[in-house]
Amino acid sequence: MRLIPLTAARGLGITRHEMSRNSVSPTTTLPHPAARCYASAMIAVLAEAPKTIREATPQALVLLQAAVRDDEIVSALKNPRLSRGQALKLAGILAKSVHAPLPLANLLGVVARAGRLSILPDILDASVAQLDALAGVVPVQVISAAPLSDMQKVQLKVMIKAHQKSKDVHLHERVDASLIAGFRAFFGGLVWDTSVSGQLARLKAQLSARVNS
Questions:
Q1: Within 10 Å of residue 14's Cβ, how many Cβ atoms?
Q2: Chain-centre distance of CA 68, in angstroms?
Q3: Distance from C-alpha of 191 to C-alpha of 17, rounded to nearest angstrom
Q4: Residues 6 or more apart from 139 whose CB is under 8 A from it?
Q5: Which CATH class is domain 35-132?
Q6: How many helices (H) and strands (E) does the chain have?
Q7: What would the pLDDT profile of 61-92 be if each residue is shown by its tens digit?
Q8: Could you please report the per-residue DSSP string of 11-48?
Protein backbone atom coordinates (compact mmCIF):
# COMPACT_ATOMS: atom_id res chain seq x y z
CA MET A 1 0.00 0.00 0.00
CA ARG A 2 1.09 3.57 -0.67
CA LEU A 3 0.63 6.49 1.74
CA ILE A 4 -0.56 9.68 0.04
CA PRO A 5 -0.59 12.95 2.00
CA LEU A 6 -3.86 14.85 1.77
CA THR A 7 -3.57 17.95 3.95
CA ALA A 8 -7.10 18.99 3.02
CA ALA A 9 -8.29 16.08 5.16
CA ARG A 10 -7.39 17.89 8.38
CA GLY A 11 -10.98 18.96 8.71
CA LEU A 12 -11.86 15.28 8.92
CA GLY A 13 -9.53 14.88 11.88
CA ILE A 14 -6.65 13.28 9.95
CA THR A 15 -3.58 14.41 8.01
CA ARG A 16 -2.89 11.35 5.84
CA HIS A 17 -4.96 8.76 4.00
CA GLU A 18 -3.86 5.31 3.14
CA MET A 19 -5.10 4.59 -0.35
CA SER A 20 -4.94 1.20 -2.00
CA ARG A 21 -6.32 -0.52 -5.05
CA ASN A 22 -9.24 -2.75 -4.18
CA SER A 23 -11.48 -4.45 -6.74
CA VAL A 24 -13.86 -5.87 -4.11
CA SER A 25 -16.67 -3.85 -2.60
CA PRO A 26 -16.97 -3.44 1.20
CA THR A 27 -19.86 -5.91 1.26
CA THR A 28 -19.21 -9.45 2.41
CA THR A 29 -20.42 -11.12 -0.81
CA LEU A 30 -19.85 -10.43 -4.48
CA PRO A 31 -22.87 -9.36 -6.56
CA HIS A 32 -24.69 -12.01 -8.58
CA PRO A 33 -23.35 -12.08 -12.18
CA ALA A 34 -26.88 -11.75 -13.63
CA ALA A 35 -27.54 -8.52 -11.72
CA ARG A 36 -25.70 -6.32 -14.22
CA CYS A 37 -27.64 -7.84 -17.13
CA TYR A 38 -31.02 -7.07 -15.56
CA ALA A 39 -29.84 -3.57 -14.71
CA SER A 40 -28.55 -2.93 -18.24
CA ALA A 41 -31.86 -4.05 -19.73
CA MET A 42 -33.82 -1.62 -17.55
CA ILE A 43 -31.41 1.26 -18.27
CA ALA A 44 -31.84 0.63 -22.01
CA VAL A 45 -35.63 0.82 -21.67
CA LEU A 46 -35.34 3.89 -19.47
CA ALA A 47 -33.29 5.68 -22.12
CA GLU A 48 -36.30 5.55 -24.47
CA ALA A 49 -38.83 6.63 -21.82
CA PRO A 50 -40.35 10.12 -21.49
CA LYS A 51 -38.33 12.70 -19.58
CA THR A 52 -40.66 12.65 -16.56
CA ILE A 53 -40.10 8.91 -16.13
CA ARG A 54 -36.33 9.22 -16.64
CA GLU A 55 -36.22 11.86 -13.92
CA ALA A 56 -38.44 9.98 -11.44
CA THR A 57 -36.80 6.57 -11.72
CA PRO A 58 -33.45 7.28 -9.97
CA GLN A 59 -35.16 8.46 -6.78
CA ALA A 60 -37.48 5.45 -6.77
CA LEU A 61 -34.47 3.19 -7.29
CA VAL A 62 -32.64 4.65 -4.31
CA LEU A 63 -35.72 4.31 -2.10
CA LEU A 64 -36.19 0.70 -3.17
CA GLN A 65 -32.47 0.04 -2.72
CA ALA A 66 -32.81 1.10 0.93
CA ALA A 67 -36.06 -0.82 1.42
CA VAL A 68 -34.62 -4.18 0.37
CA ARG A 69 -31.99 -3.88 3.10
CA ASP A 70 -34.71 -4.38 5.72
CA ASP A 71 -34.26 -7.75 7.47
CA GLU A 72 -37.88 -8.82 6.99
CA ILE A 73 -37.87 -7.93 3.30
CA VAL A 74 -34.52 -9.68 2.79
CA SER A 75 -35.97 -12.78 4.43
CA ALA A 76 -39.00 -12.68 2.13
CA LEU A 77 -36.89 -12.17 -0.99
CA LYS A 78 -34.65 -15.11 -0.14
CA ASN A 79 -37.50 -17.44 0.91
CA PRO A 80 -37.02 -20.60 -1.23
CA ARG A 81 -40.69 -21.54 -0.70
CA LEU A 82 -41.98 -18.35 -2.30
CA SER A 83 -44.43 -19.31 -5.06
CA ARG A 84 -44.54 -17.44 -8.37
CA GLY A 85 -47.80 -15.82 -7.35
CA GLN A 86 -46.37 -14.73 -4.01
CA ALA A 87 -43.24 -13.40 -5.73
CA LEU A 88 -45.34 -11.32 -8.13
CA LYS A 89 -47.44 -10.01 -5.24
CA LEU A 90 -44.30 -9.05 -3.30
CA ALA A 91 -42.88 -7.33 -6.40
CA GLY A 92 -46.12 -5.38 -6.75
CA ILE A 93 -46.03 -4.29 -3.12
CA LEU A 94 -42.44 -3.09 -3.47
CA ALA A 95 -43.25 -1.20 -6.68
CA LYS A 96 -46.25 0.49 -5.07
CA SER A 97 -44.31 1.41 -1.92
CA VAL A 98 -41.88 3.61 -3.90
CA HIS A 99 -44.33 4.71 -6.62
CA ALA A 100 -42.09 2.93 -9.11
CA PRO A 101 -42.19 4.32 -12.67
CA LEU A 102 -43.14 1.79 -15.36
CA PRO A 103 -39.57 0.66 -16.30
CA LEU A 104 -38.76 -0.11 -12.65
CA ALA A 105 -42.13 -1.75 -12.00
CA ASN A 106 -41.65 -3.91 -15.10
CA LEU A 107 -38.16 -4.87 -13.92
CA LEU A 108 -39.58 -6.05 -10.60
CA GLY A 109 -42.18 -8.13 -12.44
CA VAL A 110 -39.62 -9.72 -14.75
CA VAL A 111 -37.34 -10.58 -11.84
CA ALA A 112 -40.25 -12.05 -9.86
CA ARG A 113 -41.46 -14.19 -12.77
CA ALA A 114 -37.92 -15.47 -13.30
CA GLY A 115 -37.67 -16.52 -9.65
CA ARG A 116 -34.77 -14.14 -9.08
CA LEU A 117 -36.08 -11.92 -6.26
CA SER A 118 -33.25 -13.22 -4.07
CA ILE A 119 -30.79 -11.17 -6.15
CA LEU A 120 -32.97 -8.04 -6.28
CA PRO A 121 -30.63 -6.06 -3.96
CA ASP A 122 -27.73 -6.77 -6.36
CA ILE A 123 -29.86 -5.75 -9.36
CA LEU A 124 -30.83 -2.46 -7.72
CA ASP A 125 -27.22 -1.76 -6.74
CA ALA A 126 -26.12 -2.39 -10.32
CA SER A 127 -28.90 -0.17 -11.67
CA VAL A 128 -27.94 2.72 -9.40
CA ALA A 129 -24.27 2.29 -10.29
CA GLN A 130 -24.99 2.35 -14.03
CA LEU A 131 -27.17 5.45 -13.75
CA ASP A 132 -24.49 7.15 -11.67
CA ALA A 133 -21.85 6.32 -14.27
CA LEU A 134 -24.00 7.75 -17.07
CA ALA A 135 -24.50 10.95 -15.07
CA GLY A 136 -20.80 11.29 -14.20
CA VAL A 137 -21.49 10.57 -10.53
CA VAL A 138 -19.09 8.57 -8.35
CA PRO A 139 -20.83 6.26 -5.86
CA VAL A 140 -18.89 6.00 -2.59
CA GLN A 141 -19.46 3.42 0.10
CA VAL A 142 -18.45 4.97 3.43
CA ILE A 143 -18.12 2.87 6.57
CA SER A 144 -17.45 4.98 9.66
CA ALA A 145 -17.06 4.35 13.37
CA ALA A 146 -19.68 7.06 14.04
CA PRO A 147 -21.98 9.02 11.72
CA LEU A 148 -20.07 11.67 9.75
CA SER A 149 -20.96 15.31 10.40
CA ASP A 150 -22.38 17.43 7.57
CA MET A 151 -19.04 19.23 7.30
CA GLN A 152 -17.12 15.96 7.08
CA LYS A 153 -19.45 14.74 4.32
CA VAL A 154 -18.95 17.93 2.33
CA GLN A 155 -15.17 17.78 2.69
CA LEU A 156 -15.06 14.10 1.74
CA LYS A 157 -17.19 14.77 -1.35
CA VAL A 158 -14.95 17.66 -2.42
CA MET A 159 -11.81 15.54 -2.05
CA ILE A 160 -13.22 12.60 -4.01
CA LYS A 161 -14.66 14.83 -6.75
CA ALA A 162 -11.22 16.40 -7.19
CA HIS A 163 -9.49 13.02 -7.19
CA GLN A 164 -11.92 11.39 -9.64
CA LYS A 165 -12.61 14.53 -11.68
CA SER A 166 -16.32 13.73 -11.43
CA LYS A 167 -19.44 15.90 -11.63
CA ASP A 168 -20.78 14.73 -8.29
CA VAL A 169 -20.37 12.18 -5.51
CA HIS A 170 -23.06 10.08 -3.84
CA LEU A 171 -22.22 8.83 -0.35
CA HIS A 172 -23.76 5.57 0.83
CA GLU A 173 -23.07 5.43 4.55
CA ARG A 174 -22.91 2.65 7.13
CA VAL A 175 -21.76 2.77 10.74
CA ASP A 176 -19.44 0.07 12.12
CA ALA A 177 -18.20 0.68 15.67
CA SER A 178 -15.46 -1.95 15.24
CA LEU A 179 -13.46 0.65 13.28
CA ILE A 180 -12.97 2.39 16.67
CA ALA A 181 -12.54 5.81 15.00
CA GLY A 182 -12.26 7.22 11.48
CA PHE A 183 -13.75 5.78 8.31
CA ARG A 184 -13.16 3.73 5.18
CA ALA A 185 -14.30 5.04 1.79
CA PHE A 186 -14.61 2.65 -1.16
CA PHE A 187 -14.85 4.12 -4.68
CA GLY A 188 -13.52 3.52 -8.18
CA GLY A 189 -11.58 0.45 -7.11
CA LEU A 190 -9.84 2.43 -4.34
CA VAL A 191 -9.98 2.42 -0.57
CA TRP A 192 -9.26 5.42 1.66
CA ASP A 193 -8.76 4.03 5.15
CA THR A 194 -8.43 6.41 8.10
CA SER A 195 -9.84 4.03 10.70
CA VAL A 196 -7.98 3.24 13.91
CA SER A 197 -8.57 -0.48 13.33
CA GLY A 198 -6.96 -0.13 9.90
CA GLN A 199 -3.96 1.71 11.36
CA LEU A 200 -3.54 -1.00 14.00
CA ALA A 201 -3.70 -3.73 11.35
CA ARG A 202 -1.04 -1.96 9.26
CA LEU A 203 1.18 -1.48 12.31
CA LYS A 204 0.86 -5.17 13.16
CA ALA A 205 1.78 -6.12 9.58
CA GLN A 206 4.82 -3.82 9.62
CA LEU A 207 6.03 -5.23 12.95
CA SER A 208 5.52 -8.80 11.70
CA ALA A 209 7.47 -8.05 8.51
CA ARG A 210 10.38 -6.63 10.50
CA VAL A 211 10.47 -9.58 12.87
CA ASN A 212 10.42 -12.07 9.98
CA SER A 213 12.97 -10.18 7.82
A1: 17
A2: 13
A3: 9
A4: 128, 129, 132, 170, 172, 187
A5: mainly alpha
A6: 8, 6
A7: 989 988 998 889 999 999 999 999 999 999 99
A8: GGT-SEEEEEE--S-SSSSPPPTTHHHHHHHHHHHHHT
Report the C-alpha gap between 152 and 149 in whole angstroms: 5
What is the b/e burial string over 113-126, where b = at least 16 CB atoms within 10 angstroms of the residue's CB?
A: eeebbbbbbbbbbb
The radius of gyration computed from the CA coordinates of the chain, to the nearest angstrom, equals 20
Record the pTM: 0.63
- pLDDT tens string 48-65: 999 999 999 989 998 998
DSSP 147: P
- Could you tell me the CA-to-CA distances from 210 to 1, 13, 19, 20 in Å, in that order? 16, 29, 22, 21
Domain boundaries, the chain: 2-23+137-212, 35-132
Triad 80, 36, 156: Cα angle to 5°: 110
